[in-house]
Each structure stands twice: as structure tokens, then as C-alpha cells.
Amino acid sequence: MRVGLLTGGGDCPGLNAVIHAVVKKGILHYGDEFVGFLEGWRGVLDNNSAPLTLAAVDGILDQGGTVLRTSRTNVRKIEGGIEKCVATLKANKIDALIAIGGDDTQSVTNALIQAGVPGVGVPKTIDNDLYGTDACFGFDTAVSIATEAVDRLHTTAEAHNRVIVCEVMGRDAGWIALTAGVAGGAHVVLVPEKPIDLDHVCGLLKYNHDHGKKYGIVVVAEGAKLPGGGQATQGSKVDSFGHARLSGVGQALAEMIEGKTGYETRSVNLGHTQRGGTPTAYDRMLATRYGLAAIDLVHQGNFGRLVVLRGTEIKDIPIAEAISKNRTVTDNFLEILDGLEPKV
Amino acid sequence: MRVGLLTGGGDCPGLNAVIHAVVKKGILHYGDEFVGFLEGWRGVLDNNSAPLTLAAVDGILDQGGTVLRTSRTNVRKIEGGIEKCVATLKANKIDALIAIGGDDTQSVTNALIQAGVPGVGVPKTIDNDLYGTDACFGFDTAVSIATEAVDRLHTTAEAHNRVIVCEVMGRDAGWIALTAGVAGGAHVVLVPEKPIDLDHVCGLLKYNHDHGKKYGIVVVAEGAKLPGGGQATQGSKVDSFGHARLSGVGQALAEMIEGKTGYETRSVNLGHTQRGGTPTAYDRMLATRYGLAAIDLVHQGNFGRLVVLRGTEIKDIPIAEAISKNRTVTDNFLEILDGLEPKV
Amino acid sequence: MRVGLLTGGGDCPGLNAVIHAVVKKGILHYGDEFVGFLEGWRGVLDNNSAPLTLAAVDGILDQGGTVLRTSRTNVRKIEGGIEKCVATLKANKIDALIAIGGDDTQSVTNALIQAGVPGVGVPKTIDNDLYGTDACFGFDTAVSIATEAVDRLHTTAEAHNRVIVCEVMGRDAGWIALTAGVAGGAHVVLVPEKPIDLDHVCGLLKYNHDHGKKYGIVVVAEGAKLPGGGQATQGSKVDSFGHARLSGVGQALAEMIEGKTGYETRSVNLGHTQRGGTPTAYDRMLATRYGLAAIDLVHQGNFGRLVVLRGTEIKDIPIAEAISKNRTVTDNFLEILDGLEPKV
Amino acid sequence: MRVGLLTGGGDCPGLNAVIHAVVKKGILHYGDEFVGFLEGWRGVLDNNSAPLTLAAVDGILDQGGTVLRTSRTNVRKIEGGIEKCVATLKANKIDALIAIGGDDTQSVTNALIQAGVPGVGVPKTIDNDLYGTDACFGFDTAVSIATEAVDRLHTTAEAHNRVIVCEVMGRDAGWIALTAGVAGGAHVVLVPEKPIDLDHVCGLLKYNHDHGKKYGIVVVAEGAKLPGGGQATQGSKVDSFGHARLSGVGQALAEMIEGKTGYETRSVNLGHTQRGGTPTAYDRMLATRYGLAAIDLVHQGNFGRLVVLRGTEIKDIPIAEAISKNRTVTDNFLEILDGLEPKV
Questions:
Q1: The listed CATH number (3.40.50.450, 3.30.70.20, 2.60.40.1230, 3.40.50.20) that belongs to domain C2-137+278-322
Q2: Which of A316, C14, C285, D217 is most buried (CB neighbours < 10 A)?
Q3: What are phi and psi of A223, to 5 degrees?
């Protein structure tokens, strides 16, 4: 078969591991040919592609980014976009299409499927908030990087009796903040799912201070809601992927904490360092399994499906189901935070 | 309540994170007192313990090893052992016991429960082969360390046109070899669940050699079965935890490969470096969740249970069920390897 | 002897390794007693101290921060400060004082020496700009962290055809930017020693763009001078250590680059993550050697000296000489950048 | 100019960073052309080469290994070897040759220079034992890897009350063992420069045991001399680079320690993991500076020289001088170990 492949949306460690697995199994086992469309759906719109051979994917398994590059081009918002894509795929004699991406990307995959294109989806969201799967690759890497940063902040905060606020990714869902906060032993963890209660935040820091721990680490998701309405005023400066620019909720919160407690407070925003670089072993394995399952679906003729993780097994669900809603941090996960906090 | 706590069997990154979570939630939310028995069941047998306060668990979340230390003492193999343990627990006015450990440790927990001790288990096996749970803490850390080593071996093997055999942990189950092998892009991965086929191994290396890749990385589990009967002759030198000593299957296999192919072949055994040091964020989170769930079970009076991961949720199952069998690498996981290999 | 010890100024990975070495050799070889003054000179002013025993320094070698904590209290700016310090030292029967810190800290050490206190200095500056020594501990760790971040930024920038500006520490000297920039393969490196030439910066990025590399990595020291006068307007918000707060030169420069080139440009500021956490092996070794040399100087009665690295040897120079001037990036180091850049 | 380039001897992190710097400055600043001879001197003997363009060195700065590959072929031991090399260089119209390698490689460079070839040397030894330079790239990376391993071994050894012996590289010089041992807080460090005194080793471990530290970490260089004559009997199995195979001095020493003290003792040999993978920032910078200096020497017509580090500056010395003797661990470095040890 002649299979098209693309990566859409924000980049994410593990994208290359998916590509590597798809192409390797496709060529070695099924005798497929691969066409890589460049920069997400833009490459399909503009018919910009490159062949993906075994040589092209050699050694990319552990590389961050995506050799196909990516973009946020959303075909559905472009008039005649779907038709143009269908035409490109026909012109390239594509028998099946594998699209790796999040909600936005998969909504286009879904539209193409409805237009008759045999498509399969691989989920991708560094925020881990896609509905229907236990895990998305890239998330574990982001959490690892954030946790290592939090580990480092402990000693410098402690040396200076300071509070340090560390802002991490997570616009709608607080999985990265929750996991890196718990794993990093942060004293306060704040997620978008629960409005920030400044009294509670300062109460926790004060409790520690009164019990001999004269420093504090606060991990906050970029999408956490500041008290007094909405996000940081700087939050209006969002980038094209909807992520807050540098001076976001973390810095605003640091100023509030210092104002209220009098403790010297600093902030740091991990920004783009969280999404680059080599994926963790966990993410490489998950991405590889997704890739293998996706090419298997193609050869089973099982289209319109998204590969997902359920427990230890790779399964597949309708793409339409996955993009219908988000998976945010639920109460039983917020109880983890409660369980580790003093009552203040 | 007055709760006893111990860690048994081989050490594993994440043990301290479990202790940290149990003690923090126990004291801060339930008003418990904690007694830590030292060096596994030996501490219960000998009535050797230390109080576990908030101060004692401060800052241990990210530390490897276990502040309670551990041993392989198996109470069931000692005459009157169970009675002695019951007496110690009574003497210490222990209302409930939380035992963190693998099959051997939990078989004692189970025996104590049958003798009337209110006990709860937390699973621990770095090999990830415990039945009934999707994951055990420590495994992700071991895989990370092994994968980083495999990453490093690629460049030195390539620079010298060599084959390097990397031996990793896994006596009965090949999860570490499988995951680190796939994540590290090894060319051959060998697990205990499938006898080594030397022709196939050398065939894969030769295929790569003939296609321009003049080096090879082989990842082998310590328990993999060499061709011609059983394990490496050196395999008889096992340590007290049943792990092969330094010169094991890896070195024997390297000699076989060099003999058969003529390719210069070296071996390295990652040994104890795989089980020490700070746990990954994944393992810290999982261990924390296990600890929180274990102390909750105690306060629910839900004894005889083992906390487990199912999908994204923490559940609990009867201890007796978990220790009844092992979870080894099944065919659908071996297919991952097939999917990435050329047909030779 | 009874020896006082303190750490002053901004914290720096390796401070604990110095303390560890001083105390270990002092107790084990010289039979000394140690008094640790807490939070830098503030602890001497306020007579706030704790004994430093072998147990107190066990296991701190690889820890970031400083068990003695630190502050920026400058005794010389406090009326009667020097006299108060002399009195505290006398009251504690201190025979000799070892002060670990940078210019500010050592200027107090020097004043105390002139007031008759037998003192020895250990240099500390994460910026590596202390005159008279080839290297300061902490710098290598900061560079490692910054380089790993730059490594990660490459793949995310490339995936999106973006320019990413990474701001690193270095107020007066650009050693961190220079080293992490070169080691990380940044396309543009900007230091405080040379005013930023925006045309040149954009020219380099455009050259790459025209030659197929459609992304760019810019590493900029926080103290680099923006074109059009001085630092970033946000630069006025400096913290108590004189370091720019979050929105500094990096963000301002990113906006200038995007404005001039039209390339999508993002910025990230590594901030406090650069100075926390476990030191590199290099820094641990250097800090250990400094500590051993400092306690040797004390027992040689060789006061008023600062330990320094010269080539591979530890030497000592007058404290007064070291604090007289800074070591900034010189032309022969700037030539490294020229050597790797295209001519534009 | 038309410049030849090769890497010889054992591989070492940083080789690619040298190649990257040489080629970039050569092409961008001097307008040179580069011919890369493959697999060390073997490529010159056999006239096996590939052009080195800017594209060929793009992105290799942070890669371990060497894109030119390497071998231990020693031209001087091959009859007519020097003449053959001279002929190849002439046939390729090589105006100057840059050889990156250790003693053996540079002895050939020197012989070629005497035969009229305009050559320049870049020093390379992971053991850091080359005479005439303060540091060689690759060493810092090896030490980092070994130190991280030692860090990890602490917690597993402590959890089990064990002694763990960690064998590291260093056949003639103990720099890696010394530095990783001190940085990793090992309790005993053993180097080739001083025969192992088993009584002293066991005395140190016993002292710790008697003072509450019931575990021990021993770092031993592969070339350390065991008591009772020579190296481990297994030491006869050396690889083609003279490095001991897996079961070397570490395992033999572990057995001796367990025999003498009765403490449970394990060993691990870090082996090839120490020389692979991405170089540290320190090594990337040093290698880059060496590369830039080497191509400068070529254009200054300053042949027969080896680039070296002296303090913070890159200098050059006659190749003949560098290969005349080794730089081993001297008494003032052994005093570091004495300073940190109890007197037993």
C-alpha cells in the first residue's frame, strides 16, 4: 500500500518514534511505500511531501521534534480545504492516511474520513488531556523535565528562605502540574480545574514556615485561574498554540504571594524546554506501540479509528469519540494533593 | 491508629516515596502514629524498629533505597517465625501493618493476615512481573537507566564497527529488556520467555551489516536461556536475591556471537546501577499513590488487600491472588519486536 | 582549632561539597571543631550558629544549596558591623574563619582580616567571573543545565520553523552564555561584554534560513545590552541579588527579532533552575579541593588568602587581589563565536 | 587548502565536536575543502575517504562516537605503512593533515611529519593521561557517567548493608577513578598508581561499619594492582584496546573484600557505557576550542604541533613532546583521598 503520514499541532517528544515504528513495520512487514506530508495539514493542502524510506527513519527514534515538521494549519477553517486535501491524496495515489496529532488534527482526519479518505489517527497531546486513552506520549517527558526543574528549585529556594513559583504547561488540564508537583515534592500545586484560593496557598506556605520549613515551592499550570477573575493580564499574550507567553500566571501569582505573606518570592516559567529533546523511555515505548498499531489498523482496513492505551494494552476507538471531550483532572486525583497537605 | 511499616526484598527506587506518602497522610489526616520495622521482616522477628515521624520522612520522596532498609529474611522459612512476628506486633501495640514488597514479602503478609494481623500490601518488583497490577514502581526507573546506557552504547559500537551485548535485569520476566531494548533502538532483544535462537540473532546482525549498518546492539535479560541448554555456566553464581553475578548470559552470548559471525563483540552488564538512585517522576507518582491508597485501606478496615494500578486508577485486590502467579512477557508484546525486525 | 565557617551571597551548586571537605579533613586529620554561622554574615552579626560535626556533613557532598543557608547581608554597609562580627567571633572562641563567597562576601572577609581576624576565603560565583582563578564551582553545573535546555530547544524550534531566544545567567560576564551557547550549538550567542548588534543577529538567522535551516537558537546573557540603550525596560525589576526578573532581555530581544525578520520567535528564561540541584562531578571535585586547601591554609597559619585553581593545581592568592577586578569574556574567547559563524 | 582529517584509537565523546569545529571554521573562514579518512589510519592506508562538507557536520556537535569512525590500526607496525600513507595523501592532493587521537595515533602523525607531511595533532584520551595538556575531552563525560553510577550505587548498597565495588576505566592512570570516586563520595578509591593495600581497604570499610555506616562504596580503576601480584587473573582477557574484559579487577577485589570482612560484597563494571553518548558541555567546549585551534595552526603553517589546554588558554606544543610520557596521578592528588579518609 501507499500510505501518507503527517504530524500536526504542537510538537511533542515521541513523534519521531511513531514515524519510525510506522515506517519500519510498514516497509519490512507489509511492503508499503510511505509519503510524508510536511508541516501537518499544510503539506496536504499544498501538496508538499517527501518519501519516507527506511534510511529516512534510521536513528530518529530517540530524537525530539518531528522530521515531518508540524504546523497548526486547520484545514476545516479554510474554504475548500477538505476538497483540496482529498485531491492531493488522490494525486499522490495514497491508499491510506495516518495522522498523528491532537483534537484539532484529528477533527480534520475525521472530516476527511467522512469525505471518503481511509484514515487512522494516532493521539498526541503533551498535556495528556485527550479523552479515551490512559496516556499520550510526550507527557511523561514533559513531566520528567518539569520534575527535574522542581528538584533543582528546592535547594536554591531553601538556601535563601524563598518561595519559588514554577509555571508549567497545561492550559485546560493540570496533569503536568499535578504529576510534576507531586513527584517534585512541591508544597503547593495549582491546576486549571480548581480556581486558585490565595488564602489556602498562603496558609500552606505559612504552615510550613511556622513548622521550620522556611521556603516553599509552588507548581502552577499555565491555565490555572488567578483569584479575582481570569488569568494573568499578561495571559492575553498567548502564542499561536494558545500557550501563555513568558510572563504569565506564575509571575502574577508570585507577586500576590509576596504581597500577602511578605516572603521573598520568585518565579520561573519552564516554557518550551518542556516539549523539546529526547523522549523518555516510557514515551518512546508508547509511541512505538502506537505506530505499530496504526499501521496494523491500516492493513486490517479498520479506518476511522484512533489508537489508544487501555491499561497495558493498545486498543482503538472511533476518532469521533476521542475528540468529543477532554480528560481533565478529576476529584480523585485532586485528593492526592489533599492527602499530602496539612489542614490549614 | 498505630501503624507498622516495613520494606522487604530487593531495594527498588520509589520505596521511600511510598513511606513518605503513607506517613504524611497518616499523620496529617488520620492522626496516626508509625513504627518502622528495620530491614524487612527481620526487624519484626527481632523487634528492631524506629518511630516514623513527619521529620523522618521529610525530603525522602526523591531518594533511592529505603530509609527502613531491607533484607530477604523469609519468616515462613523460620520455625516459629510467624508466631514471633505476631508477638512483636502485639508488644508494639500495632493496630495495622503495611508491608511493601514483592511475592516473598507478601506471602508473609498473607500468612500473618491468616494469623489475625490486620495487614495491607504494597506491591514492589523492579522486574514489573507482579500479577494483578498494570505497573510496579521502580521498573520505570530501571528502564530509564538501561535505556540511557543503550543510547550511549550505540555511538561507541558504531565508531568501532562492533557488536555490544548489554545485559539487564529480569530473571523470569523480560519487561526491562523488552522496554529498554525497544526504547533504545536495540537491533536484537532477548527475554527469558523465549529461548535464544543464535541463528536468528546472528541473522539479524548480518542483515544490518549487509545493509550498511556495521555495528549492532543486543539487549539481553539476565534470565534469557542460552542455546544449548540453560543459562550461562557462570549463571550458577547467583547472589542472595537470585540475580546473576557479573559474568552472566551477556558475556557468554557475546562470545557466541563473535564466534559465529566474526564480528568483534563486547559485553557490558548494567548490574546494580539499575536499581539505585532517584526514581523517575513516573515512579514517584505511582509510589505516592500506592502509599496514599494503602493508608486509606487501613482506615477503611479493608485488610488482606494489595494496592494495584488498573489503567489510570488505583484499585485493590486480595494479596493471595497477586502472589499466585507471575506476569511475564506475552505474545502480543513479543510481536512488538517482530514488528521492528527485518525478516531473516 | 575552633574554626568558623559560612556561605554568603547567591547560592551555587558545590557549596555543600566545600563544607563537607573542610569539616571532614578538619575533624579527621587536624582534630578541629567547627561552628557554622547561618545565613552568611547575618549569622555572624546576630551570633546565630550551629555546630558542624561529621554527622552534619554526611551525605551533603552531592546536595545543591547550602546547609548553612545564605543571605546577601553586607556587614560593611551596616554601622558597627565589623566590630559586631569581631565580637561574635571572640565570644565563640573562633581561632580561624573560612568564608565561602564572591566579591561581596570576600570584601567583608578582607575587612575582618584587617581587623585582626584570622580568615581564609573560598571563591564562589556561578558566573565564573572572579579574577585570579581559572574556575569557580557552580559554573559547570549552570552551564550543564543551560546546555541541556538548549539541546531540547533545538528540536521544538525546528519542528515549528521558529526562532527561540534562551536567556541565561550572567549579569556582567557572559561565560555561561558563551559556554552553553557554543556547547549547545546555538546559532547566535550574546554576552554583556559586546553590545547586541541586531542587524548582525538577524543576519545570522537569515543566512541559516536561506541555507535551509529554517529555525534558530539564540542564547543571550541576562546582562547583554540591547540595541538602543541599556537593558530591557523590564530589567529594572532586579531581584535582591541583582539578577533580572522574569521578563528580561530575552523576551525583549525575541520581540525585536520577530519584528525585524518576520520569523515566529519565542523566548524562555532558565532563571533559578540554573543554580539549584546536584552539582556536576567537575564542580564537586573542584569544591572538594577548595575545601581541603582552605583548611590546610588555616593550619599553616596562612591567612588573608583565597584558594584558587591555576591549571590543574590549587594555589592561593591574597583576597584583596581577587576582589579588585572581574574576569570578563575577552577577545580571544569571542573569537570562538566568530570562528563558528558564517560571515554575514 | 585541502585538508585531511581522521580520528584514531578508542572512541571518546567529543570527537565529533572537534570535527564540527575544524570543518566549520575551515570552510566558513578559510575556504578550505575537507577529506575525511575513515576508520583512523586504516583509511589513509587504504585510501578510503569521504568529503566533509558543512552539511556532513551539521548537528554532529553533540553526538558521541565519530562520524569518521575509528580503528587501532598502527601504521608504524605495517611494513611500508608510512610510505603508503604519504602516497595516499599525495594522491588526494592533501595540503595538510589533522589527526585526532592519543599517543599511538600521534606517533604516526609524528612519523608522517618527519616524512614531510604537514600535520597537526589534536589530543584524545578518555583516561586524561596525555602529557602536556591540562585536560582532554571525553574525560569529563566519562567521569560524569561514572559519578552518576556511583551516586546510584549508594542507595542500593545502603538499603542492603552491602559493599559495592565499582570498576571504572583507567589502565595506566587513575584520573577517572579518582575524580568519580571523590565526586561520588566513595569510601575507598583505588588507582593504578598505588598498589592496593587490602588491609587498608578493609580497615576503611570496617571503620565506617563501626561508626554506623553499614555499607561501602569502592571505586577501582581497571588497571589497579591487586595484592599478591599483578592484576586480576581474568585481566589477561583484554580487548583490542587493551581494556580489561568484563570480569576484571572489580570482581576479584569484591571477592577478596567479602572474604576478609564477611560483609556481603557485590561488583559492577561500567565498561563501555563510560565512553559512549553525548559529551558534557565541558567536553563539547574543549573539543570545539581544540578544533578551532587546529585549523588555525594549519593556516599559520605551524605544523608538527599538538593543541593543548593550559589553564584557560589553548596553546600548542611539539607532538613529539606530548607522546614522550604519560601524566599519571601524582602524590598531591592522592592527598585528596587521604584528606577525606579516617586514619585507620
A1: 3.40.50.450
A2: C14
A3: -95, 5
